[in-house]
């Protein structure tokens, strides 16, 4: 058996690891159009929260609207769905989120930005962005209060999870 005395080089970097968890978390979402995942990480690189977009607790997914109906807000998912970021903050397993980093697969909307600010998160790392007034409002809010944000720049294209492999 061959022995090596040097550490692995191909390990995941922190950003890849946490964004990977956010993307995996998004796979729990029932939204047929867009699945978003979010992870909160403390200053000691511990995951303290995770969330994905979904209907509020107790709502039967099959009874809720999943489309966007501009005519009838009661038949529009946007009226009801809880965003990944909000769910992550609500699900935190620590007392407060001051100084935490937030990893999200989609830039936070203006409503979640308010929650992010109030939680004293210090940095937002996002995978994708949208050209919308909601995201623009979030950026102006983050700029005002000094929350930094940056797009995740992957060094690798894929991370494979193979349930059939022996780990
Ligand atoms: N930062 C965000 C942005 C959006 N979401 C959720 C809200 C909806 O469930 C979905 C977007 O649906 P679409 O407009 O693409 O039909 O993503 C979120 O959780 N976090
Ligand atoms: Zn939001």
TrEMBL record:
The keyword GTP-binding does not apply. Zn(2+) binds at residues 83, 109, 112. It comes from Pristionchus fissidentatus. Its EC number is 3.5.4.12. The lineage of its organism: Eukaryota, Metazoa, Ecdysozoa, Nematoda, Chromadorea. Belongs to the cytidine and deoxycytidylate deaminase family. Residues 13-141 form the CMP/dCMP-type deaminase domain. Supplies the nucleotide substrate for thymidylate synthetase. This is Probable deoxycytidylate deaminase. Its cofactor is Zn(2+). SUPFAM superfamilies: Cytidine deaminase-like. The keyword Metal-binding applies. CDD domains: deoxycytidylate_deaminase. InterPro entries: APOBEC/CMP_deaminase_Zn-bd, CMP_dCMP_dom, Cytidine_deaminase-like, dCMP_deaminase, dCMP_deaminase-rel, Deoxycytidylate_deaminase_dom. It is an enzyme of class 3 (hydrolase). One of its GO terms (molecular function) is zinc ion binding. Keywords: Hydrolase, Metal-binding, Nucleotide biosynthesis, Zinc. It catalyses: dCMP + H2O + H(+) = dUMP + NH4(+). The active site is at 85 (proton donor). GO terms for cellular component: cytoplasm. One of its GO terms (biological process) is pyrimidine nucleotide metabolic process.
